[in-house]
Every structure is written in structure tokens, then in C-alpha cells.
Amino acid sequence: MHYDRAMRWLIELLTRSGDALIAHLLPTGRVLRFGAIALAGIFSPGLYNSATRTVVQKQIYFTAWQIIGSFSLFAALLSLLLIQITITATRNYGLGDYALEVVLRVLVIELLPLITALFVALRSGAAINAEVALMKITNEIEALAEVGVDAMRLEFLPRVIGGVISVLALTATVSLTALVLAYLSLYGLQIHGLAAFSQVLGQVFSPGQVFGLWLKCLLFGLAVTVIPIAAGLDAPHKLFFAPIAVLAGMVRLFFALMLIEVGSLAITYL
Question: What residue spans of 188-270 are helical by DSSP H?
């Protein structure tokens, strides 16, 4: 009898564990499937017409252009603070010659792209998630399909494209700002440091490193758009599920961004 109880308990435990695992894996599978469809659609020449270009432009405007000034100022202040801390710390330990390399590797390659992705996720990813969830709940997607409008092509893919471009553009802007601040902090307005500065840039930003950096930023851009859209499409047809869908999407997005960053660090330094 004890054996039967133990077996029933074990079967129930395995069943619950299996159901929980499937429940966690299904959303991930749907995100990957939607991401594959989005990538295929992005490279489709038929996607780019006046209607989709308008949506892409609006997405870039609301995601990047509206906040480029304030975000650049925030990133500049943060970069200046971290640059000064790095320079002071390395000089105190007699490692001043490595200050610039540390700044480039930690700030420009790792920290600023991640901060940019998180900022875009909070500003635009949550809004996209909520918008798509409401479209799903109110049957707007089905209504568009009934009149012959492809929501994937007209609504979703342009947002993915606009989000990716926004992340890449913002990352390039704040990274260039950090490079200028790093030079000014080390050499001031004098030009005699250009040779040494260029030499360190060449050592840090090798072709492989540049490719890896932009690949990581591309993955960040895809994540902050694909995951919120996929989470919105998973929302049940009940209005009170909209906030739950947004919360679930943002949690998945956070873990995806951290996973991309950790993977990048592991590939670069291990």
C-alpha cells in the first residue's frame, strides 16, 4: 500500500512538473516561431510599400526620435561619471594606461547597449505589448483579416523594423558620445592623444568584436519588439487579461535581454 501511494505521488508530481514545463515552453516556442516569421517577412521585398514605411517611420519617431535628446543627456552623464571613476581607480592602482581600454570594453561594448535596450523596452516594448493585446482581445486582428488586411504585414512587421532601427540608432549615438567623453577626459582638447586613442580603439574594436557588438544590438532590437508582440497575441479574449499579458511579456523580455548579454559575455571572455 505504501508502494502504491508512493507511485501515485510520484506520478502526480511528474505530471504537474510536466504540465508546468510545457506551460513555460509553449510561450517560448510561440515567440521563436513569431521571430522566425518576422525575420522572413523583413527580408521580403513585397513588405516595403508606402503604408508599411509610414508605420516604420512612426515607430522610429515615437521610439527613438522623441527621446534621443533626453536619453543622450542621461547616457552622457552616466558615461562621464563612470569614465571618471574608472580613470581614478586605474590610476590609484598604477594601471592608468589601461583606463581607456576598460572604459571601451565595459561602457561602450557592454553597458550602454544593454541600457539602451532596457530603455526602449520600458518606453516602447510595453506600449507595443498593450496595443497588440487590446487588438487581440477586441478582435481587431480578425476584423482586419476579414477585410483582406494582413495584420502581420501592416501592423507587426513595421513595428519590428522600427524597433530594431531605433535600438541600433540610439546605441550608436550614445556610444559615439561616450567615445568623445572618454577622449576629452583623458586628453582634454589637445590633439596629441589621437594616435594613442586610435591605437586602443583598433585593439578593442577588432572586426570580430564590431560584428559581435552589432549582432548583439540587433538581437536586442528584435527582442524588444518580437517578444511584446508575441505576448500580446497570446492574450485571451478577455479584457482583464490585458495587464497580465503585458506583465508576462515584459518579464520574458527582461530575461531575454539578460540572456543575450550573458551569452555575449560568455562568448567574448570565456
Answer: 194-204, 207-233, 242-269
Separation of alpha carbons 14 and 259, rounded Å: 28
Query: CA 87 to CA 110: how far, in whole Å?
Result: 18
Closest CA to 182 of 119, 95, 106, 74: 106
Do the Cβ atoms of 149 and 212 come closer than 8 Å?
A: no
Name the residue among 209, 205, 227 with its Cα closest to residue 265. 209
pLDDT, one tens digit per residue, over 144-202 is: 778 877 777 788 888 888 889 999 999 999 999 999 999 998 888 888 878 888 888 88
Q: Provide the residue type at 147 as one letter.
A: V
Alpha-carbon span 84 to 189, nearest angstrom = 16
Please indicate, yes or no, whether the overall pTM of this predicted structure exceeds 0.85. no
- pLDDT 10s digits, 16-71: 544 343 444 456 666 677 667 767 666 666 666 777 888 888 888 888 888 899 99
